[in-house]
Write a structure and sequence with these properties.
It contains three helices and four strands; from the N terminus they run H-E-E-E-E-H-H. With about 140 residues, it is of the alpha+beta class. A hairpin with a 3-residue loop joins strand 2 and strand 3. The longest helix is centred in the last third of the chain and has 29 residues.
């Protein structure tokens, strides 16, 4: 298999893939915030949550659902800020994954990545990193 990347490009491709994978795992894991509620351990992220309170209308009380899962709908995400964070972080993860997979294909296919494509991919990767890492830092 011929590669269109230099040695530095191959290292960039593999590091890009590792960073994109770590970013996606972090996005999907519900361990952004940890705490306790109703004497139970709870955690949640922008996309998923674990051990959350639900109102039981038949017994007229709040009970804890002790399982992990996605929010029932986009509107079920606790606030508008969390919804925005979910969209921006998801977009960033998608851009990082797109560049990483393209770079990995460049390791196997000759003439796939030129100098210009590499620069554009670097710009897209910067934007993806800014979206996924800079969400809470006032982009």
């Amino acid at each position: 298999m011929a590669s269109s990347l230099t040695c530095a490009g191959i290292v960039w491709a593999f590091l890009s893939f590792l960073c994109a994978a770590a970013s996606c795992v972090g996005f999907f894991m519900p361990y952004w915030l940890l705490g306790s509620q109703l004497e139970k351990s709870v955690s949640f992220g922008t996309f998923r949550r674990c051990s959350y309170p639900v109102r039981d209308e038949s017994r007229q009380m709040t009970v804890m659902v002790e399982q992990c899962g996605r929010y029932a709908s986009f509107q079920a995400i606790p606030s508008a800020e969390w919804r925005i964070c979910t969209v921006v972080t998801g977009l960033g993860c998608g851009l990082l994954l797109l560049v990483a997979l393209t770079a990995l294909m460049g390791c196997c296919v000759s003439d796939l990545i030129s100098r210009t494509v590499g620069r554009v991919a670097g710009g897209i990767q910067f934007l993806g990193g800014k979206c996924s890492c800079g969400t809470g830092m006032g982009m």
